Amino acid sequence: MINPETWMEIREGGFYCVPAECYVDPMVPVTRAVVTHGHADHASRGHGRVWATPETIDIMRTRNYVADETQTTGLPYGQRHDLGGGVTLWFASAGHILGSAQAVFEYQGQRIVAAGDFKRHPDPTCAPFEVVPCDVFITEATFALPVFQHPPLEDEVEKLMRSMRTLPDRTHIVGVYALGKCQRVMKTLRLAGYEHPFYIHGALKRLTELYESYGQDFGVWQLVSEIDRNDKDRFRGKIVLCPPAQINDRWSRRFADPLPTVASGWMQIRARARQKRAELGLVVSDHADWNDLLRTCRETGAGMVWITHGRVEALEYALKKEGINAKGLHLIGIEEAAGE
């Protein structure tokens, strides 16, 4: 068996597949890039050619991450593709957001899976995570500490709806990431019986429309900017969705008695909730928690686990205690991943 480090290297731009001459989720412009999903810490501008799922390519176009001259190849889950140099590439669902994928590289009888960001909790807005047996598994470690045990999203949505019943005159302003978190929260609220229109910040519009083009139904929603600024009572007892930075910004002053709320995996840490000035914290994460990170590494059967981004040392230590050959890596990039 060949040494996987001879054909999948760590370079300044990220992981580099040597025989196929391409990078995985590079943070700098490169000639050839395999992109696992559309968040800004994995998808960037300036690449000459991009391989991703069709949904991720559409997300990158929507966010202006690909230029007209960029060559794109959209691969649906499971479709095998000759990447060159004897390397076969295919994508498996990562369960993170719409179109998110694990990049599966096969070379000379060996398989390396670059998981990107992933989660194991159910999500009505994207395909569920698929366990792919492999020789090397590359995992993130955003929430790789035992304290992080993510509750079901339905429980956190019920917490929000209970707050609305208790405080019917307040406007619940919920800070959510524009890609993935926003749509997942909206869909789960609908499934829980929330019947009022959603009012959303303009920054959430294009990606919500993109999700709808893929068959998601969020019911009635309206841009806050389309409402008369003097009509504050319109928002009482309703949900307003916006980027997290806006919940305590001047923008929020247009609402009647706003109640700042943040939906994030970090809300499990009280200091983070205080830092965000959230009156209500919802533990909502699009990443695997501690238990799911451990069980995923086990279930892949990988002889080697490479760990990136986040609490690398803690996960490396825990896996080594179980007899798994784990290696913590420190890549240049954004540590607190988008869509947290």
TrEMBL record:
<dbReference type="InterPro" id="IPR001279">
    <property type="entry name" value="Metallo-B-lactamas"/>
</dbReference>
<dbReference type="GO" id="GO:0016874">
    <property type="term" value="F:ligase activity"/>
</dbReference>
<dbReference type="InterPro" id="IPR026360">
    <property type="entry name" value="Xnuc_lig_assoc"/>
</dbReference>
<protein>
    <submittedName>
        <fullName>DNA ligase-associated DEXH box helicase</fullName>
    </submittedName>
</protein>
<dbReference type="GO" id="GO:0004521">
    <property type="term" value="F:RNA endonuclease activity"/>
</dbReference>
<dbReference type="InterPro" id="IPR036866">
    <property type="entry name" value="RibonucZ/Hydroxyglut_hydro"/>
</dbReference>
<dbReference type="InterPro" id="IPR050698">
    <property type="entry name" value="MBL"/>
</dbReference>
<keyword id="KW-0436">Ligase</keyword>
<feature type="domain" description="Metallo-beta-lactamase">
    <location>
        <begin position="4"/>
        <end position="176"/>
    </location>
</feature>
